């Protein structure tokens, strides 16, 4: 089948932008052999190459969360304070969010294969450096390098997928990548806790060495969809890069650190917000007026892409928000260890893995908008089920809500991606992939910042409401204090009545926490309901999964 016939049948998209050049295409565009493969079944080397890229994707996303359960051990190893150690995660996130939107330009400049291999090797090298860090300053620099390289790995997978695969093969590989996304965002703390408890925190980074080198080698041998275009350096927009870095970097920093430092009351956060707002305004002016912008925002003129990025933004809020809230609840309220927490939250990832083959069949049978509506509905329902937390909630009480959440996610990944990316011309995929992944990362960052801020406010609210009913005028309160004081009499050196009052205070704090978690989970569910309400505005995607 020729490329023209393929496009006429709608296998890729409704191409309305850049005309295609088959033989002798200009550098930086997809080569003729790669383009011709779109009409044929993918070869074994294509599957191997994409699975290798998926492994790199798993490493890059998992490393965002892998340190969360081991920050105390890293803090001791680097002699850092509790406030300073948070930079181990912040540095990665800031660098990641700066690099992601640049991937479109960098892949045209270097080619997709070269960019991915450099990023994979850079990520591996930075991981080695992180393991050898002896001070907080070194760790921050090395984690930023790791995040910058990880940010280049994530978006480069999608242009390869849409170039090499079509029809049912395309649906299958997107489902596989969806499972990787789900598992990597949930197993990070579990893997991190296991490695730290079994070996040491250094192995959080050393574990990347072998797979990183293997992934780089396999991708170099198997993937080749375009050629570098070094002529792009002539009009390289350095000013645009600096404006984008200041805009996104300061935005990510203020979102991540703002809740901890009471937002604009802190001078550093205030400066970061001002720089982000000013840099953002100048950045948008630059990319809309410069002849060769570092990021092409005209992609958002495609209505389905604009809605698709909003849907993945919402999914980012849901993924990162619940991955943050549920483990925190189990740690603060139930006192579970990192390994126990990991064995509970991994239910979501396992369900998405098991149901992945089913999702491809559903996508062939249903309108993609209907499938996404089912996914958003299931996710919202899972938030409703989860928001019944009590101080006794454990594995079995969370099993069904987490399983429903996994079902919702697997019904969201594939249609959201195809709604956003499946109607774009091939030449726009590399730029669009960066913007698409950026929306998910920003969704996670903005969602987490909002959650942490609202958590403090709702905790204060529920504490005040509960404490109104905890006073000595109520017989049940007197009975509780007397019972606890009698139980503790002679077992502690301090006055037993004071210890009983402390126990009552802890009980009130615990119940306020439980109510706060329930509020925040319902809020996440409400956001998915808003996404459901926007689905009728999405244009009907052209069905090409059956070809």
Task: Write up this protein.
The model is unreliable at 1-39 (pLDDT under 50). The chain starts with a helix and ends in a 13-residue tail after the last helix. The protein contains 21 helices and no strands. With 547 residues, it is mainly α. Helices cover 74% and strands 0% of the residues. The protein has helices spanning 3-8, 32-36, 44-65, 71-78, 82-85, 87-99, 103-110, 112-132, 136-164, 167-198, 203-206, 209-222, 238-257, 267-289, 303-332, 338-365, 368-386, 395-421, 429-467, 475-488, 496-534. 50% of the residues are buried. It is globular.
Topology:
Blueprint: H1 3-8, H2 32-36, H3 44-65, H4 71-78, H5 82-85, H6 87-99, H7 103-110, H8 112-132, H9 136-164, H10 167-198, H11 203-206, H12 209-222, H13 238-257, H14 267-289, H15 303-332, H16 338-365, H17 368-386, H18 395-421, H19 429-467, H20 475-488, H21 496-534
Helix pairs in contact: 3-9, 3-10, 3-12, 6-9, 6-13, 7-8, 7-19, 8-9, 8-12, 9-19, 10-16, 10-18, 13-14, 13-19, 15-16, 15-18, 15-19, 15-21, 16-18, 17-18, 17-21, 19-21, 20-21
Helicity level? over 70%
Average pLDDT taken over every residue: 79
Summarize the helix and strand pattern as letters: HHHHHHHHHHHHHHHHHHHHH
Q: Compute the separation of the termini in Å.
A: 12 Å
Number of helices: 21
Query: From the structure provided, what is the oligomeric state, counting identical versus distinct chains?
Result: single chain
């Amino acid at each position: 089948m020729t490329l023209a016939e393929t496009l006429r049948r709608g296998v890729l998209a409704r191409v309305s932008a850049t005309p295609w050049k088959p033989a002798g295409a200009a550098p930086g565009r997809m080569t003729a052999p790669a383009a011709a493969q779109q009409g044929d079944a993918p070869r074994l080397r294509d599957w191997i190459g994409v699975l290798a890229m998926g492994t790199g994707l798993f490493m890059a996303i998992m490393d965002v969360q892998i340190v969360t359960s081991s920050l105390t051990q890293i803090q001791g190893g680097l002699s850092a304070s509790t406030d300073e150690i948070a930079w181990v995660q912040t540095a990665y996130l800031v660098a990641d969010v700066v690099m992601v939107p640049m991937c479109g330009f960098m892949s045209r400049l270097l080619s997709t294969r070269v960019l991915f291999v450099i990023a994979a090797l850079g990520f591996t090298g930075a991981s080695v450096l992180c393991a050898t860090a002896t001070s907080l300053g070194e760790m921050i620099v090395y984690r930023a390098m790791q995040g910058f390289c990880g940010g280049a790995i994530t978006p480069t997978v999608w242009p390869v997928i849409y170039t090499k695969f079509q029809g049912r093969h395309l649906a299958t590989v997107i489902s596989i990548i969806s499972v990787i996304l789900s598992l990597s965002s949930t197993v990070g703390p579990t893997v991190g806790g296991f490695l730290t408890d079994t070996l040491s925190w250094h192995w959080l980074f050393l574990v990347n060495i072998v797979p990183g080198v293997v992934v780089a080698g396999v991708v170099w041998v198997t993937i080749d969809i375009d050629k570098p275009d070094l002529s792009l350096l002539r009009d390289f927009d350095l000013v645009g890069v600096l404006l984008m870095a200041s805009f996104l970097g300061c935005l990510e920093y203020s979102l991540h650190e703002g809740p901890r430092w009471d937002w604009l009351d802190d001078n550093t956060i205030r400066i970061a917000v001002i720089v982000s707002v000013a840099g953002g305004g100048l950045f948008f002016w630059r990319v809309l007026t410069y002849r060769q912008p570092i990021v092409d925002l005209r992609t958002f003129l495609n209505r389905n892409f604009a809605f698709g990025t909003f849907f993945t933004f919402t999914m980012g809020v849901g993924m990162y928000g619940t991955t943050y809230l549920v483990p925190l609840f189990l740690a603060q309220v139930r006192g579970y260890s990192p390994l126990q927490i990991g064995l509970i939250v991994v239910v979501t990832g396992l369900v998405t893995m098991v149901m992945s083959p089913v999702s491809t069949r559903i996508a062939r049978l249903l309108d993609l908008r209907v499938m996404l509506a089912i996914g958003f509905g299931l996710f919202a329902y899972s938030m409703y089920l989860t928001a019944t937390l009590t101080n006794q909630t454990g594995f079995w009480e969370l099993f069904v809500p987490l399983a429903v959440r996994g079902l919702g996610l697997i019904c969201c990944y594939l249609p959201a991606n195809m709604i956003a990316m499946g109607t774009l011309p091939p030449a726009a995929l590399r730029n669009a992939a960066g913007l698409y992944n950026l929306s998910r990362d920003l969704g996670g960052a903005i969602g987490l910042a909002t959650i942490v801020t609202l958590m403090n406010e709702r905790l204060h609210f529920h504490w005040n409401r509960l404490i109104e009913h905890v006073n000595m005028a109520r017989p049940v309160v007197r009975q509780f204090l007397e019972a606890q004081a009698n139980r503790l009499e002679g077992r502690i050196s301090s006055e037993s009545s004071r210890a009983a009052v402390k126990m009552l205070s802890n009980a009130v704090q615990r119940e306020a926490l439980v109510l706060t978690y329930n509020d925040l989970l319902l809020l996440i569910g409400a956001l998915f309901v808003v996404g459901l309400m926007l689905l009728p505005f999405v244009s009907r995607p052209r069905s090409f999964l059956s070809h």
